[in-house]
Amino acid sequence: MTTRYAALLRGINVGGHKKVPMAQLRTLLTELGHSDVTTYLQSGNAAFTSTSGAGEDTLAAELGAAIEQHFGFRVDCLVCGGPYLRAVADACPFPAAGLEPRQLHVTYFSEAVTPDRFARLDQAAFLPEEFRLGDRALYLYAPEGLGRSKLAEALARPAFTKDITATTRNWNTVVKLAELTRD
């Protein structure tokens, strides 16, 4: 069975730390047996086709181990299938077409999260910023962009991300990953 996936690497190529050149990422994915590998931007987004039949968690663990062996540091990786990525984009609870891409972000999680994880957060204190939960995803509306978002800063605290892999992408990247993983 041939399946199209996206790999989302967390925290690479930021401020000169954890450098993973995209050409080398493409090579690693190819060496892991995947085909039709392409990368998007320098922030750790890759699309690939796999015939291995392995699940997303297994593919992510294999890629993480390959990166650690090749580069000498650990990187959290998520692997998501194309149908899931399209479903996340389609389920956006905010009016994406009417917003600037810098105002809308999706945080992808390695597993489902429930509202009780965020119950201690006073969302009203961050208005007009807000977030909504989806399927293994959190949609963040930040009118001034992610860099100025106090809500994004609060959501990144260990209390909310403990024991889970989370990585955030802006709306342009969310849409592009959905496109790159079409069969």
UniProtKB/TrEMBL annotation:
Xref: Pfam families: DUF1697 (PF08002)
InterPro entries, alphabetized: DUF1697 (IPR012545)
Coiled coil: none
Source superkingdom: Bacteria
SUPFAM superfamilies according to UniProt: SP0830-like
Listed name of the protein: DUF1697 domain-containing protein
Species of origin: Streptomyces gobitricini
